[in-house]
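Field reference: sequence -> structure
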Amino acid sequence: MDKVVATALEAVADVPEGASLAVGGFGLSGVPNVLVQALFERGVSGLSVVSNNCGAMESGLAVLLSAGRIARVTGSYVGANKEFARQYLAGELEVEMIPQGTLAERLRAGGAGIPAFYTPAGVGTQVADGGLPWRYDGSGGVALASPPKEVREFDGTEYVLERGIRTDFALVRAAKGDRHGNLVFSRSTRNFNPLAAMAGRVTIAEVEELVEPGGIDPDAVHLPGIFVQRVVALTPEQAAAKMIEKRTVSG
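Structure field:
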């Protein structure tokens, strides 16, 4: 089955208002910028996004965030995104912050058909007990707080129950992909991308290099095409457009 779509705009054409999205990437690494930009151009709003962070340096999800297109974020890292913090504290944005490893496993579990799992991460904190501010009222008060979660003891250790995550769509970026949707990620871009791809009911991948079926050694596939519904081949210019978050020099 040839899953290649001609353009990014065509690939995201059926993403509706209020859709939920799992988005790959970490900082500026492995972010599906072309697909995010296509969503921005379409004007879709009211989005609920699940991603490690919500964009950085006016790239990635920060494009949608700054335009007021995101209603809810499930993530684990705010970082230096000042607009994210402003919207959250002003009561304009609902935010569910969870431990990073828990976020990764919730995405993987959802994609694997596992409805929930127990983890020790968060036991004895507001992650398990509830009360984390999901939404502020704009005046310093909490308008919506997280509910308590089930805690059980196994072999003398307490664990909190976490739900698997499934989203309407997933947007990811891969270094290489074939027409069947098999994907390969390069180095640190193999962060949240495979997990986000698993969690999406419809997964759209932008690939830096498109090859024909058989062009990827089966042992080299990081994510099998069963998890991917659409593939967008990037132009050489799009594939090469990679920002650096923090430049360092060595003496």
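Note: Helices lie at 8-11, 33-42, 61-66, 82-89, 100-111, 126-129, 193-199, 236-240.
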